[in-house]
Design goal:
The chain is mainly alpha-helical. It has a domain of 72 residues. It has two helices and no strands. Helix 1 packs antiparallel against helix 2. It is elongated.
């Protein structure tokens, strides 16, 4: 039962940012649609709803960034990424040379 609950929580941790990203995308889309649809003879210069647009942009970028980062670090842990993205390992120390008389 404990494994099922932990898997459910893990799925929720991915679903919630995904829903936030989808809602942010819809806010951006609706803001742009409302702005372009309001042009006409009645209102030749409509106002752009910047607050709604920025709110949607933040939600979208936050959700996509969270899911992308989660996938990147999971793939990095399983060694599925390109060599330039792998964790840097420290070089082993160089061996110390010994001279014939025992001093370095």
């Amino acid at each position: 039962m404990r494994l099922v609950l932990s898997r459910f929580i893990a799925v929720l941790l991915l679903v919630i940012p995904g829903i936030g990203a989808a809602y942010g995308f819809l806010q951006i889309k609706n803001t742009l649609f409302d702005y372009f649809a309001s042009f006409g003879p009645a209102d030749p210069d409509p106002a752009f709803n910047w607050l709604r647009f920025i709110f949607g942009l933040v939600l979208f970028l936050g959700g996509v960034g969270f899911i992308g980062g989660w996938i990147f670090f999971r793939d990095r842990k399983r060694n599925y990424v390109a060599p330039r993205f792998r964790k840097k390992r420290p070089r082993p120390p160089k061996p110390v040379r010994q001279t014939d008389n025992g001093t370095t």
